[in-house]
Design a protein that fits this description.
The protein has 371 residues and is an alpha+beta fold. Helices cover 24% and strands 24% of the residues. Strands 5-3-13-12-11-10 form a 6-stranded mixed β-sheet. The longest helix is centred in the last third of the chain and has 22 residues. It starts with 27 loop residues before the first strand and ends in a 6-residue tail after the last helix. 54% of the residues are buried.
Length: 371
């Protein structure tokens, strides 16, 4: 189930064919999902409700064919490796990986190992992969160190274009958003510019943030109408749970952008989070990474002494900003609708948002979404 299946069409721009980040040509997504055990938490033994999600910017070898990239941190109570070099160099030189808080190091090390095994030349750009996290500890044995190199390898090996798995998959297996079970979500927009130029913008989120009462969907304050008395949330059973939380967003485009323009795109993802009800709480890690594949010829080799890059004029960026904001909001909604109720460690349960109930609330406020 996705937002558009309920007649919820956020914004006015058209989506790509799969309404996913993979609508950006060459972009691929892969997941490894780990669901093991039940009952009381025993650190190191589980229960396990976690995983890895990887985003590859194109079908080539990103370690030797980097793309321009940038990032934005809305609130920094979280971790994302490789961002200092991304900022300094302007290059994304690795896949982007998402996982849980306790496994950032394991995923980072696995990516470095894979780069070496692929024979990346030593004159390439520094090996500082981008790995980001959110805390799935309400459901998962987050410090049990369950993510291993083979899980990262599997996510990379199975990465593909086309429709993207959403909800309880990969890095979203154990995540919660606005008091409902959530996970991975994605959306895209097609942007027609002057002179017949057309570009695609895609967003993928790992949604794990927010209070129930603040949830908005396309301007409707859904969280005020679907209370925790109706569908329990984490705070219903564990008052301290999810006071902050985090969200990671990956923004992709095939437009020819320079690194500082990628920073600007990444920044706009925060507006999509705000429209859905996020406030970037003190305990929240809200990090957004953007890359642009419009300059694919930036191959690293000793013989390269001059790169010629194209740049979309800044006056066209507003349409891309709009695309990022709308696609981010819709990706969050898709992460909620695709997820299913899950019970994890200590019997903790995260309940899914009932699509029929969401449709009922939306239709009461927006008759146009009625079927």
């Amino acid at each position: 189930m996705r937002a558009r299946d309920l007649g919820i069409n956020i914004g006015t721009l058209p989506t790509g064919p799969d309404n996913a980040i993979t609508d950006v040509s060459g972009c691929r997504v892969g997941h490894t999902t780990l669901i093991e055990g039940s009952g009381p938490l025993v650190v190191g033994n589980g229960p396990v409700r976690t995983g890895v999600t990887v985003v590859l910017p194109h079908e080539g070898h990103v370690w030797t064919e980097p793309v321009f990239g940038g990032h934005h941190c809305l609130n920094g109570n979280g971790e994302a490796t490789g961002l200092l070099w991304l900022r300094e160099s302007g290059f994304l030189t690795s896949p982007i990986a998402l996982t849980n808080t306790g496994s950032v190091g394991a995923v980072r090390d696995a990516l470095v190992r894979l780069e070496v095994e692929h024979g990346t030349p030593r004159d390439s750009l520094n090996s500082l992969p981008v790995v980001a996290e959110t805390d799935d500890g309400f459901l998962n044995d987050v410090y049990g160190l369950h993510i291993r190199p083979e899980h990262v390898e599997r996510a990379l090996r199975t990465a593909a274009g086309g429709p993207v798995g959403e909800g309880n998959v990969g890095a979203g297996t154990g995540t919660i958003c606005h008091g409902f079970k959530a996970g991975i979500g994605t959306s895209s927009r097609h942007v027609a510019l002057a002179g017949g130029v057309a570009v695609t913008v895609g967003v993928l989120v790992q949604a794990n943030y927010g209070r129930r009462a603040r949830l908005c969907v396309d301007g409707v304050p859904v969280g005020r109408y679907v209370s925790e008395d109706e569908i329990p949330g984490p705070s219903h059973t564990e008052p301290a749970a999810r006071s902050g939380g985090s969200i990671i967003g990956v923004v992709a485009t095939d437009a020819p952008l320079l690194p500082h323009q990628c920073d600007r795109l990444a920044q706009r993802a925060g507006l999509g989070v705000a429209r859905a009800g996020g406030v970037a709480a003190d305990a929240s890690g809200d990090v957004f990474v953007a890359f642009a594949t419009g300059n694919r010829h930036l191959r690293v080799s000793q013989g390269d002494h001059l790169f010629r890059a194209e740049m979309l004029p800044n006056r066209f960026l507003t349409s891309l900003f709009e695309a990022v904001v709308d696609a981010t909001e819709e990706a969050i909604v898709n992460s909620l609708l695709a997820a299913s109720t899950m019970t994890g460690r200590d019997g903790n349960t995260a309940y899914a948002l009932d699509p029929a109930r969401l449709h009922e609330v939306m239709a009461a406020h927006r008759p146009r979404v009625s079927k």
